[in-house]
Design brief:
With 517 residues, the chain is mostly helical. The chain has a single domain, classed as Hydantoin permease (Orthogonal Bundle). The protein is 71% helix and 1% strand. It has a two-stranded antiparallel sheet. The termini are far apart.
């Protein structure tokens, strides 16, 4: 039986793992699902509480608190930093290309490796399936608001990654530890709010360490196995071995820490991005006569949506939701990877990081949307789910063309798993690393213990349908935005000061480089 992505929370949040083996829902799975279900319901009630409806205003669609929180942060930082998402774009490319790199900077990885690792964790199956769901629910107009939200999210990424580098910790062995838990604790302590900072940092670390299980590994391995068996039916019955193979391939990489992960991601991410974008361009190119109509349909749908789509507000919220779930701007995860970059100026990595939502949402998600729209399948006449709709759009070119999705899905999932393993391990180290060092004499034990559990769950997740556990982990990932954005708002003045000083330095540096040339 063909397996596809399922969606919960009114069909808007890509969470639920579908088993690659249709008859594995045994007592263990049922017990796990029964245990986590009430917790998921509670978190759902909090994160997806609709404050607009609570005020007695009928917007025609549910407007969750967590989406308002993420969009508010993105809009605030965009205005507060005078549209750094636009004016910093060219310089971001210069930094990624290594134009301003210098020897002797603290850190472990390059600007390119940092953005490859962080973007690899966000570019995943949601870019293929989630966009299709957004269009099915909100129509082509959701694409416009998805792009707007992606552009605004660039400013949030700039803020959190600048702080990630500023407050990172250089360990005795020259490795780097960083992320929201560090700037929440140290940054807020500097402003006299040490208790709040400690509380928020621990909250974030717990959410990230546990949240990495599920969407960070279980969901990914499950979908890789499911799609592999669909493509090659003769592998039916070997799902667990495929899952073990995935876990081994992940383990070989993550044992080397962020350096090993970055070395793999800076090779795989360009390959998978080019492969998927090229495939999309082929479909769009074959349907070139419909490109103009597609853009007109997107603009018309963005502002003139019918009541069935929730009207103008409904389509806008659906687009914002998809972007928020896709690029993770405001979640804070990217700051963990970016904090390890080789630089002495925190703002440089903030500027590099603003490219992530652009690549993930403005480019890759938009490509998926255009493929669906130009092929005329945006009305979803067959009522297909997620990846099936995208696959159907690809199949309009040729019956074999959807097979190109399999290597893309494998690469998307693999890079997501190895990136989230680092986010989870770093967060776990923040919580228990000191305890391990005092008790066993070696801090690395905390990381190794977490990695072993992570790999076991990756393998098990390939064959078990633990939907409630995956839902729970995704809720925790969204919850990371609450303490993170509180900290970002409080520390924003520090970032603005850093930005002003950096822009003055950059102006002088450009003059020196011009004179040398």
């Amino acid at each position: 039986m063909r397996k596809t992505l399922a969606f919960c929370i009114s069909g808007l949040l890509p969470l639920t793992t579908l088993s690659a083996q249709s008859q594995t829902s045994g007592s263990f799975s049922d017990s796990v699902n029964n245990f986590f279900s009430p917790i998921v319901k509670f978190l759902d009630a909090v994160l997806f509480w609709d404050p607009v409806a609570a005020l007695g205003i009928d917007a025609g669609i549910k407007i969750p608190f967590i989406i308002i929180w993420l969009v508010f942060g993105a809009l605030f930082f965009t205005i507060y930093f005078r549209f750094i998402n636009l004016r910093g774009f060219r310089h971001a490319i210069e930094l990624v290309m290594g134009k301003f790199d210098k020897e002797g900077h603290d850190g472990e990885i390059s600007h390119f490796q940092a953005i490859a690792t962080a973007t690899a964790s966000t570019v995943g199956l949601g870019n293929i399936a989630g966009v299709a769901v957004a269009i099915s629910l909100g129509g082509p107009g959701a694409t416009f608001w998805l792009i707007v939200a992606g552009l605004l999210g660039m400013s949030t990424k700039f803020t959190e990654c600048t702080l990630g580098v500023k407050y990172r910790k250089i360990n005795p062995d020259n490795t780097v530890s960083g992320g929201p838990m560090y700037y929440l604790k140290e940054g807020l302590a500097k402003r006299g709010w040490s208790k709040l900072g400690k509380t928020l940092s621990v909250m974030f670390a717990i959410f990230a360490a546990i949240g990495a299980f599920g969407i960070g590994n279980m969901f990914q391995s499950n979908q890789v196995v499911a799609q592999t068996v669909i493509t090659f039916p003769q592998l039916e019955g070997y799902q667990i071995w495929i899952g073990i193979a995935i876990a081994i391939l992940v383990g070989v990489v993550i044992i080397g820490g962020i350096k090993g992960i970055a070395k793999v991601n800076d090779k795989l991410f360009p390959i998978m991005a080019i492969l998927y974008i090229t495939s999309c361009l082929v479909v769009i190119g074959i349907n070139y006569r419909h490109i103009d109509d597609a853009f007109l349909t997107i603009l018309n749908g963005a502002f003139n949506a019918d009541a069935a789509k929730g009207g103008f507000i409904g389509v806008m919220i659906i687009g914002f939701r998809r972007a928020a779930f896709s690029n993770e701007a405001g979640i804070g995860s990217a700051a963990i990877a970016h904090s390890t970059v080789k630089t002495q100026k925190p703002v440089t990595e903030g500027i590099v990081a603003l490219l992530e939502p652009f690549i993930d949402t403005v480019v890759i998600c938009t490509m998926t949307a255009l493929v669906i729209i130009v092929t005329g399948l945006y009305d979803n006449p067959q009522n297909l789910n997620g990846a099936d709709l995208t696959s159907a759009a690809f199949s309009t070119v040729s019956s074999w063309f959807p097979y190109l999705l399999l290597p893309t899905i494998i690469l998307f999932a693999y890079t997501t798993i190895i990136s989230w393993s680092y986010y989870g391990a770093t967060s776990f180290d923040y919580l228990l690393g000191d305890t391990c060092e005092k008790t066993f004499g070696k801090r690395i034990y905390a990381t190794r213990f977490y990695q072993i559990i992570f790999l076991i769950v990756t393998a098990i997740g390939s064959v078990l349908s633990l939907s409630a556990l995956v839902d729970f982990s995704d809720m925790l990932i969204l919850s990371m935005a609450v303490p993170n954005i509180i900290g970002l708002l409080i520390l924003a003045p520090e970032v603005r000061t850093e930005l002003k000083e950096y822009m003055k330095w950059l102006k002088t540096e450009r003059k020196l480089m011009k004179n040398k040339a």
